Amino acid sequence: MPVYNEAEIIVTVLDDWIAVLDELGCDYVVHAFNDGSTDESLGILQDYAGRCTRVQVHDKANAGHGPTVLKGYKEFCDAAPWLFQVDSDNEVRAAMFPKFWEQRQGYDFIIGRRIGEQRPLIRRIMSIGAAMVVRVIFGKGVHDVNCPYRLMRAEIFRDLYRAIPDDTFSPNLVVAGYAVASNLRRLEIPIPYRTRKTGTVSIRKLSIIRAIVSSVIETIRLKRV
């Protein structure tokens, strides 16, 4: 779970996830990666982890969403049979996770497909661009390719995670493309989406053109992995 300036909502998000995972009886750890937040997120996370052993906090310099997610993949792909990535903005709720967990044995890659409220224009452009990149390079098979709500069989993706450069802007595009190109057992599950009410949308710091071009270049370069 990457975290950037989510002081207003992070406790609610963690409470929801702990409740859902405990109800499922999962053996789990929530790894929260603070990506150089400039608000009180780090202190709140550390306080929460001090009260809940199921949460571990990792502080790092700001690098952006993609490199932060990738760092988590690389560091913990040997820790458990399954990795699940979700953002900390509460746009997609923990309540949907049981549907993913219940289906896991039949699949290698389960990803959400966001439905419901219309996302801001800048986010929709990014999603459309990402989907086009994956479709052109790898083929059809995943609609919401950059959805930050994905359950992955760790052993299947381990070598891929380690092969992706640490500074990759959109590693989740590469992961989705790999799932398609490798014909992995994959499942898409519709998940309700709600526009964030708090926090900072980091993509605003980048131009849309730069983000899409970067994603195209990186995904083409990593297709051979």
Describe the protein.
With 225 residues, the chain is α/β, with parallel strands linked by helices. The protein has one domain (2-222): Spore Coat Polysaccharide Biosynthesis Protein SpsA, Chain A (Alpha-Beta Complex). It is built from eight helices and seven strands; from the N terminus they run E-H-E-H-E-H-E-H-E-H-E-H-H-E-H. The protein has helices at residues 10-24, 41-51, 65-76, 97-103, 121-138, 154-163, 171-181, 208-222; strands spanning 2-3, 30-35, 55-60, 82-86, 109-116, 149-153, 186-193. The strands form two sheets. A four-stranded mixed beta sheet has the order 4-6-5-7, sandwiched between helices. A three-stranded parallel beta sheet has the order 1-2-3. The chain starts with a strand and ends with a helix. The mean pLDDT is 87.
